[in-house]
């Protein structure tokens, strides 16, 4: 039983393999990828070998280097896309370190520019991204429950249930659960 508890998550294993494939496709060493992404070689190596579950911030940095959104990357490690994905079958990814849970709502498809994501942040959770995965990415953030503070372009936007923020992301962003309870929101992402 102890061995199963320590076994890597199957999604992390597929994700690590895909990250290694992407690096190989670009012909980069771990050192070259570390320089491009600002992530240490050891962290990159551990993520590729699924020795650790990558954080949202780490995946964001790698997505920026590889020119894809996080949803694109995560959809590449899932099964063949279908036109309909039932709620029970929607891939869920969790960044345990930050309290972020991400559900890919849209059926994945590499050829489409838009996608829907359900995000959940636990009370007090605070996630910062140093750059967008794709410069000029359009985001629509619609809060369903709780309170969310989004900082982009040097301005903080406080969102309550029903509020929706639309922005293009060119630089750092921050998502913070600003209420006493958890926040649940829909993120509509449109690649440029």
Can you describe what's shown?
The protein has 192 residues and is an alpha+beta fold. The protein is built from 6 helices and 10 strands. The protein has helices spanning 2-6, 10-26, 30-37, 41-48, 56-66, 70-75; strands at 92-95, 100-104, 114-121, 126-129, 137-145, 148-152, 155-159, 164-169, 173-177, 183-190. Strands 1-2-3-10-5-8 form a 6-stranded antiparallel beta sheet, with no helix packed on it. A hairpin with a 2-residue loop joins strand 6 and strand 7. It is globular and about 45 Å long. The relative contact order is 0.14. The model has no long low-confidence stretch (mean pLDDT 89).
Poorly predicted parts? none
Which structural category do the helix and sheet elements fall into? Answer: alpha+beta
Determine the number of helices (DSSP H or I, runs of at least 4 residues).
Answer: 6
Number of DSSP E strands: 10
Question: What would you say about this model in short?
Answer:
It contains six helices and ten strands; from the N terminus they run H-H-H-H-H-H-E-E-E-E-E-E-E-E-E-E. The protein is α+β, with helices and mostly antiparallel strands and 192 residues long.
Features of this protein?
six-stranded antiparallel beta sheet; 6 helices; alpha+beta; 192 residues; single chain
Can you lay out the helices and strands and say which pair or pack?
Layout: H1 2-6, H2 10-26, H3 30-37, H4 41-48, H5 56-66, H6 70-75, E1 92-95, E2 100-104, E3 114-121, E4 126-129, E5 137-145, E6 148-152, E7 155-159, E8 164-169, E9 173-177, E10 183-190
Antiparallel strand pairs: 1-2, 2-3, 3-10, 4-9, 5-8, 5-10, 6-7, 6-9
């Amino acid at each position: 039983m102890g061995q199963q508890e320590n076994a890597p998550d199957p999604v992390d294993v597929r994700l690590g393999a895909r990250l290694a494939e992407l690096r190989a496709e670009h012909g980069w060493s771990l050192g070259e990828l570390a320089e491009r992404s600002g992530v240490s070689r050891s962290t990159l190596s551990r993520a590729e070998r699924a020795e650790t579950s990558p954080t949202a911030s780490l995946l964001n940095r790698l997505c920026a280097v590889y020119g894809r959104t996080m949803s694109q990357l995560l959809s590449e490690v899932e099964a063949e896309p279908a036109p309909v994905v039932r709620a029970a079958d929607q891939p869920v990814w969790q960044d345990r370190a930050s309290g972020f849970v991400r559900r890919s709502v849209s059926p994945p498809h590499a050829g489409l520019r838009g996608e829907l994501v359900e995000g959940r942040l636990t009370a007090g959770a605070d996630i910062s991204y140093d750059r967008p995965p794709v410069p000029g990415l359009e985001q629509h953030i619609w809060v369903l429950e709780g309170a969310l503070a989004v900082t982009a372009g040097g301005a903080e936007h406080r969102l309550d249930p029903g509020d929706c923020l639309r922005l293009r992301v060119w630089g750092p962003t921050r998502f913070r659960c600003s209420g006493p309870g958890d926040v649940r929101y829909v993120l509509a992402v449109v690649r440029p």
